[in-house]
Hints:
Blueprint lengths: L23 H11 L12 H4 L55 E2 L5 E3 L7 E2 L13 H6 L6 H5 L6 H6 L6 H10 L2 H10 L11 H15 L6 H6 L8 H10 L19 E2 L24 H4 L8 E2 L21 H9 L1 H7 L14 H4 L6 H8 L11 H12 L26
Antiparallel strand pairs: 1-2, 2-3, 4-5
Amino acid sequence: MTMSAQASPxxxxxxxxxxxxxxxxRAAIGQLLYYDKILSGNQNISCGTCHHHRFGSGDGLSLGIxxxxxxxxxxxxxGKGDTRIKKRIPRNASALWNLGAKQFTVLFHDGRLAIxxxxxxxxxxxxxxxxxxxxxxxxxxxxxxxxxAQFEMAGNPKENEVAGALHDRIDxxxxxxxxxxxxxxxxxxxFVEVFDDLxxxxxxxxxxxxxxxxxxxxxxxxxxxAPFDAYLAGDSAALTPQQKxxxxxxxxTAGCSDCHSGPLLxxxxxxxxxxxxFGPGRTRRFDPYVRDVxxxxxxxxxxxxxxxxxxxxxxxxxxxxxGHNGAYTTLEGIVRHxxxxxxxxxxxxxxxxxxxxxxxxxxIDFAVWDDRLEMARYRAKSDIKPRELADDEIAALIxxxxxxxxxxxxxxxxxxxxxxxxGLPVDK
Length: 428
């Protein structure tokens, strides 16, 4: 199906065949683990804390409040006293929609985890040759890495055995966490019942935990029943007239589909958008100052500087803030930025970022703006061609983006568990 106003063809509907198959029984274990704080160093934060059901599988913040924070979502605050956060999470909490799709072979904003054979284990990851054996999927592999991040889940040195192990070697973390899980009788029994290669709880590894989490994420956040899907399947009445106009712009003169292509509305590639920089940045070990070079941090290729992975736009209405660092809290803001990145960067105001106040972090929050040379390099890199759209055309584009919200996105198969086997509190 194509329309005369479109420069690009429409994709095929997102169908069940586009997804890997995952065990529902594994997913049921994964649901508990996803909200169980047993997987964090200080047992005070879970996967669900920063990728919460109530916030579109994110946290509603520009940059997350990880280990040491209190609360959930936009109300989460940085804590106080000795346990307060030492650093903001450098990047926005990615949405988890449709990560079980076969098209996803590269994950994280900078693509530092991918299906590859660089280290003879099937994956290119920050663990390199120390990646645990037994991992089956890119999603299961991704799921075990936040547990090794100091400011996300592991905690700070001397606070717990996980953080201590992390500063020896990354793979020393996972056996500690796997033991925590397998000695809880309910987890031990359920893993043995569900995983064919397990005869006893003592054999549960982080790979089993990662694959249970993957099954849950893939099952829970699968979404292919948006009005856009119905329209692609032939129901011309599935979109409103304004949404149809937005669709024509998206696949035509607005150029959105140049990068947001295919059924998942992402080309899985990396592009420089000149999004306003702030926060601690995901610095490389040898970076002498605050910055985030994006894909270059993985490839060490100067041509990749400041490029970030194109996000899928599925359920984008639910996943604010937008951008690799959550620079814009509204769809209108991020759409207007794409139309003229340089002008948008120049007019962006610091209060536009949703950053919970933390006075002890304020000096670093916008330090990059005072770095004349880094900002000059940043401003020199953009992969987007400026375009002009009228206000009513922007409104039509936003209306079309709303048509990408799945009908069942707010009613997933599992939801938030009432309790978890560890007995630790669940973030509701």
